[in-house]
Amino acid sequence: MVTIEICIGSSCYVRGANKVVECVNAWIEQFEWEQQVKVKGAFCMGLCSQGLGVKINGQPISGLGLHNMETILLPLIRQALV
Ligand code: FES
After folding, report:
1. Which residue from 13, 50, 52, 67 has the fewest beta carbons nearer than 10 Å?
2. Per-residue pLDDT tens for 11-70?
3. What are the residues whose beta carbons fall under 8 Å from the beta carbon of 62, sequence distance 6 or more?
4. d(Cα 61, Cα 11) in Å, to the nearest integer?
């Protein structure tokens, strides 16, 4: 099971954290990851200065923004699933 924590703290929220949640949920449906990927909301992870706060299996992702979700986050989720 891959756990994705998505920060919904105020700084991330105003920068589009809800879009991250929507995007990840859409991938879960598209790729049929329902049994393999769990999404959790989280409060501030102290990652605000590095981009949107997201962790995969406890590992922080740096430099994440709405513009690079498909090039950074999607490959990391796929990698975690292997
Ligand atoms: S508010 Fe999201 S990491 Fe700080």
Report:
1. 67
2. 999 999 999 999 999 999 999 999 999 999 999 999 999 999 999 999 999 999 999 999
3. 47, 50, 51
4. 16
> What lines the ligand 1 site, CB under 6 Å?
7, 9, 11-12, 44-48, 53
- Cα–Cα distance for residue pair 20/76, rounded to 1 Å: 14
Domains of the chain with CATH codes: 2-81 (3.40.30.10)
What is the C-alpha to C-alpha distance for residues 18 and 3, in angstroms, rounded to an integer? 17
Q: How far is the CA of 56 from the centre of ligand 1 (A)?
A: 15
